[in-house]
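Section 5.1 Outputs to date
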Amino acid sequence: EPQADRRAPREREGTEESAARGRGKDSAHDKETAVDMSRGSSYDRHLTIFSPEGRLYQIEYAFKAVKSCGYTTIGVCGTDGVAFVTQLKAPDKLIDPASCSHIYSISPSVGMLTTGFPADARSIAQKARQEAAEFRFKFGYEMPCDVLAKWLADNNQVYTQHAYMRVMAVETMLIGINDDDEDNKKPMLYKVDPAGYYAGYHASCAGTKEIECTNWLEKKMKAYLGESKKPLSMDQAVRLGISALQSVLSEDFKASQLEVGVISCESSTFRKLSEDEIDDHLVAISERD
């Protein structure tokens, strides 16, 4: 009996130790789970808080929203003009595609092409028009394309600093003409992203097939860049944009399925091409191929 009494406390001690170890494992597991949750779900709920990896998840989600918009947009800057091309498609069969345009005239000399949420895009276009009108009233000349791009980028960047604002799920392309030197006008193509970054481009794209389209444009634009570059006319820029869409999406478009906006150095006026003009470019592309 005394031996039995001595064993009992040892057994009780062993049981308590194993229970303590079990609790220790549970608490360690809970800590790991808490860290994983903080890295994932907690940090992506707050726009203004960096994750431990130095990322702002809400900004990344805005870029994903743009890429999941369901269409692709392309801009190409030529020697004597600049153009952008996009698909004209309605989200529903009963909707008139003509009412789903992604191209906006901001001022007589600046055109805008948006990729992303249509409601956000319309809001951005309206604000840009107001700013361009105020600039014209204040300074007596049209707001340049690069100045408008900087203003849009500044606006987007402010949205990343305040928790009570939502980032706009839109990437914006702007085209215009730099006419500071009347004898040497230069076309301009700018792109502004949801994070507030903007830059001038020789060619750019956004939307569903952005990566594939960028690779295609990089190969085709080599001949028009560098020291031994060939001139790229505005008509060629339009056809290059349409060819990029057809190649990347593996689809032959009708004129009614495309939207094209252009601005030439000669006129310095932004306009949208008619279906007949787009059809002429499609015929030229098919004859060339």
